[in-house]
Specification:
TIM Barrel, seven-stranded mixed sheet, five-stranded parallel sheet, 23% strand, globular, binds N-carbamoyl-L-aspartate, binds zinc ion, Dihydroorotase, DHOase_cat
Length: 427
Amino acid sequence: MMKYIQNIQMLNEQGELVSTSITIENKVIANIGGEQPDGAEVIDGNGCFVSPGFVDLHVHLREPGFEHKETIETGTKSAAKGGFTTICAMPNTKPVPDSIENLNLIMGLIEESAVVRVLPYGSLTVNEAGEKRTNIAELKEHGAVAFSDDGIGIQLSSTMYEQMQDAAKIDAVVVAHCEDNSLIYDGVMHEGIRNKELGLPGIPSICESVQIARDVLLAEAAGARYHVCHVSSKESVRAVRDAKAAGIRVTAEVCPHHLLLEEMDIPSDDANWKMNPPLRGKSDLDSLHQALLDGTIDCIATDHAPHTEEEKCCGMVGAPFGIVGFETAFPLLYTNFVITKKWTLKQLVDWMSVKPAEIFDLPYGKIEVGGSADLTIIDLNKEQTIEIEKFESKGRNTPFNGWKAKGWPIMTICGGNVVYEEVINEK
Ligand SMILES: NC(=O)N[C@@H](CC(=O)O)C(=O)O
Ligand SMILES: [Zn+2]
């Protein structure tokens, strides 16, 4: 089966948009810029932009165990609508992928109902309890993409160090949600100015940064590849920057919300603004932008974290941390940073496709002949208001409801299959 996408704009090496066509044969890109082959199904790109399908290293799909928040089906439909074709599912499910049996169970569910490519993490400790170490070599052999206890920081240095030593032996990446439990202080938002105005307990930046500082030294000693989740503070940026300068094998991600929002934007005690790590100060936000531009931070990850309306209804204390991210990431970043000329389109695409794929050595994230046909066609001129009622995700928990943005995916192709197509007047 062949598909021929005509009349689309693609980025060249120089970052300029050039008109071209793409031929897909079975699951791969067979030709770029060629003539229409006989018998191919023709897709008209209408002059829209085609990006490599986005790759997200940090997502929560909730199944198995928390299907009331999201399922693999709803989560991957949400990803497809947002233009993501490869997503890495964090292990805070029930059961946790801490054994071959549990990992196989999760991979079976993915096989049954995922509409985009889902690569599961294995956990670093049994049940993400931070105590007994998992057998990561075994989990890697059975399909775990990388290793993390996301949702919780690894408290014991020896546990982290020993897992890093094992990871180094098999060239696996250790991925860390950095949070020192003794420094959380029951906080629900950043310990800064706004939490005091709202009378809410704060989480200081050191809660994250001290654990990153520890981990980069452990990674150096173990010779391991280490990736830092959702960097949020300027001190954390400094720890990563210094580590990179010292030649330590560290990479880092930042979430769209930490680039777009800061603590003073939080309007009220509203749990749709509660996520971990929290929105920090303006100087932290500025430092995250600087870090992306100078390469200290390597990529953007959504940390898509759906929760129910009931859980998020009644103020920050007591509500779970997390916001959804798939269906708003590209338009928000494109509108606020590319249209405004802070970033180029090529930078944004690199941070959402090329770089994340490279961090995990994945053969995706690029448009090249012979490569997997993972493509996102985006109407860069289309303007639309973000409406939570229209989300494919079960999660409606976002602070961006009502925001206007341009640059909406209109078709997503994963492994040669159309997995999302805009329907006019949908819902
Ligand atoms: N980011 C969040 O605020 N929440 C995540 C866990 C995590 O990634 O920290 C979740 O699973 O809900
Ligand atoms: Zn996390």
